[in-house]
Amino acid sequence: MITIVGTYECKVDAKGRVLLPAPLKKQLALSLQNGFVLKRSVFQPCLELYPMAEWDLMMSKINKLNRFVKKNNDFIRRFTAGVKMVEIDALGRLLVPKDLVAFANISKDIVFSSAVNIIELWDKDLYEKSINGEDVDFAELAEEVMGNINDDDNGIS
Questions:
Q1: What is the pLDDT of residues 15-52, one digit of tens each?
Q2: Which residues lie below 8 Å from residue 123, measured CB to CB, with a gap of 6+?
Q3: Rounded-to-10 torsion of CA 21, 24, 29, 31
Q4: 65 and 133 in contact (C-beta within 8 Å)?
Q5: Rounded Cα distance, 34 and 121, in Å
């Protein structure tokens, strides 16, 4: 499992191409040869870019679901809706397919935001609204999600 770090702002051209920022491209160097999967996010109006190795790990989990259970089958269909295999071209550009551009309401400015082992692609305005959203008290959320985790002997979560 890889860990990706950083948030980067970029521009998208009229054809849906975006130049991968150099620090991000460097972090993904081992993944460039194998390609990526780009998909709709489940919870947010953004896209998720999976290095192929990470996508394969996700698919191995999903393949364990019993497809004769309707909820599982419905989930698989929706989770994989709009999934595209994509590559970074020789110039370091990623082509975002038009249907995914429309889903994420991507206009001219885009944000690449690391999400541990994948990268979220956001329209800049939507990203800013999401992280600055007043509908979520981040301190309360952090305590609820991480407050009872203390796996290390050093007392730091």
A1: 999 999 999 999 999 898 999 999 999 999 999 999 99
A2: 45, 46, 104, 105, 106, 107, 109, 110, 111
A3: -110
A4: no
A5: 20
